[in-house]
Amino acid sequence: MLTARKKKNIIEEHRRHETDTGSTNVQVSLLTRRISEVTDHLKKNLKDHHSRRGLLMMVGKRKRLLDHLAKSNPKSHASLIKKLGLKR
Question: Is the pLDDT of residue 13 over 80?
Answer without folding.
Answer: yes
